[in-house]
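**User:** Hello, beginner here. Are you able to go through the protein record under this note? It all follows right here:
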Amino acid sequence: MAAFDVHHAAEDLARMAADFERRAERFQELESRMQTLTVTESGKDDRVRVTVDSSGAPTAIDLSPSSRGMDPAVLSAEIMACLRRAQSALRIQVGELVRNTVGDDEAGAAITAQYAERFPDPEPRTSAPFEDRAASSSGHSPSMTSSTFPAHLGPASSEPTASPRSRKPDRDQIVVPDEPDPETEYYNRSWLV
């Protein structure tokens, strides 16, 4: 039977404690570096710029003066595309930071996997269908045109079609509130008076 060597066991415990301390220091360094990490992505012609922090939350959305007058759908699509690209770039930077700071560690791999799950690669850039909307001169949103919907899903022929209305209020109409009946006055009366 082999004898238990107290001296070797104490050395092993001291070595393990030193390893845990070095590992904790590396993770504290990783945490401090990640807290300062930000990523900024720009849209087409620098009309939109989105900055995200280390958690992927947007901290700044900057719109250039050239973004005025853009179709709101185009603008929101460009903001969201910039946000997704920034979050994807953040995922890549966090992965590099984890590898450079803590190396191949299980906890580091878990952090990298969490970012990969939360922030997948964005769809590749293509000419967005929203750009065609901005160029259309019809004044109607293409998403509501009749060519978008099949004929069998359109309004039935027996239903009247609504005429386009202006946004201007009808200023010639005078609205007078109805006089309340005695029962309504009774219930609306304040008991504190």
Notes: The helical segments are 6-35, 72-102, 106-118, 129-135, 182-188. The first strand starts at residue 39 and ends at 42. The beta strands are 39-42, 48-52, 58-63. Residues 127-160 have pLDDT under 50 and may be disordered.
